[in-house]
Amino acid sequence: MTILITGATGQVGGTAARLLAASGESVRALVRDTSATHDLNGVQIVGGSFEDSASLKLAMEGVDTLFLAGRDSPDTVALLGNVLQQAQKSSVRHVVKLSAIGARPDSSVELMRDHYAVDQMLKASPLCWTLLQPHLYMQNLLRFADSVQHEGKISAPMADRRFPLVDTRDVGAAAAAVLRNPTAHASRTYQLTGPEAYSYDDVANALSAVMQRHIIYEAVSPESFEKSLVESGVPGWRAFDLAHIASAYGAPDCRVSPDFKELVGYTPTPIETFFKDYIGAFSK
Ligand SMILES: NC(=O)c1ccc[n+]([C@@H]2O[C@H](COP(=O)([O-])OP(=O)(O)OC[C@H]3O[C@@H](n4cnc5c(N)ncnc54)[C@H](OP(=O)(O)O)[C@@H]3O)[C@@H](O)[C@H]2O)c1
């Protein structure tokens, strides 16, 4: 049985591919840039992309389980839809898709509407499926590394709400656990969160403790955050989603989920450990 990993040069797919290869699974990765795979030891590399159907056909030869993960874009639904179409013409039987907590058709942000659309497409197909729905990634906080370093603050449009941020390394470990034995997880949706829900004041306090330096959280409006992203060159569609992401989560979406521990057997990474592991990025 060969497992095909997409998004393997990314955070979650990369972790999943490395863990599966290290435990002796037959793992193949579809990558756009085959020179960017130095950390994928033991993984068979196939060049290709979601746009290129011929490359998908080749990559799926002899594959029965596919991990579907990509980067948000205005073309997500068409691109991932193309992958699902190719999968149905191939030996693939089971697709494990990286989705998101908050994926729904009437979400305020496009990336959640897109996840919902692709999730529904997969569920309506003859393929077996499993959905992995993480909450916000702790690694998103790396975007604030410069302002932490130079201004001692995290300015974000997250108000005073609490979010159970999850480490992408845990999401990758959960993906590997499902991909090893997909049949046991057929037709299941797993919500992947950290061990507790954190306010951004909690986040700043945890970073302060690890850095031994006072870091503050400054709540900013979604509108001013969006404007500053656009001014720094972020495309409008992306700036809107990043600025308004908090509104994509209702209160039930922000509960801590037991699913990670059930899948992997240990407690997910707390924010303090995340900051200890990534301290170099914040103090360069
Ligand atoms: N950020 C969050 O808080 C959060 C929370 C929940 C869910 N999510 C979801 O997680 C996903 C992103 O996961 P991630 O952070 O692990 O990914 P990532 O690090 O952003 O990497 C994206 C991966 O997708 C690949 N890719 C992009 N476009 C492609 C294409 N056209 N053809 C083939 N491969 C393509 C990239 O390849 P290259 O290296 O060639 O670019 C890369 O390997 C998104 O769907 C996002 O909505 C994010």
Task: Provide the descriptors you would attach to this structure in a database record.
284 residues; alpha/beta; Rossmann fold; seven-stranded parallel β-sheet; 12 helices; 9 strands; 16% strand; globular; binds NADP nicotinamide-adenine-dinucleotide phosphate
Structure description:
There is one protein chain. With 284 residues, this protein is an alpha/beta fold. It has a domain of 181 residues: Rossmann fold (3-Layer(aba) Sandwich), CATH 3.40.50.720. It has twelve helices and nine strands. The termini are far apart. The model has no long low-confidence stretch (mean pLDDT 98). The site of NADP nicotinamide-adenine-dinucleotide phosphate (NAP) has 26 residues, from helix 1.
The oligomeric state of the chains shown is: single chain
Cross-sheet strand order for the largest sheet: 3-2-1-4-5-6-8
Q: What distance lies between the first and last C-alpha atoms, to the nearest angstrom?
A: 43 Å
Order of helices and strands: EHEEHEHEHEHEHEHEHHHHH
CATH superfamily of the domain at 2-137 and 166-195 and 255-269: NAD(P)-binding Rossmann-like Domain
Largest sheet: 7 strands, parallel
Radius of gyration: 19 Å
Q: CATH topology of the domain at 2-137 and 166-195 and 255-269, anyone?
A: Rossmann fold
Taken as a percent bin, the fraction of beta residues is 15-25%
Tally of DSSP β-strands = 9
Mean pLDDT: 98
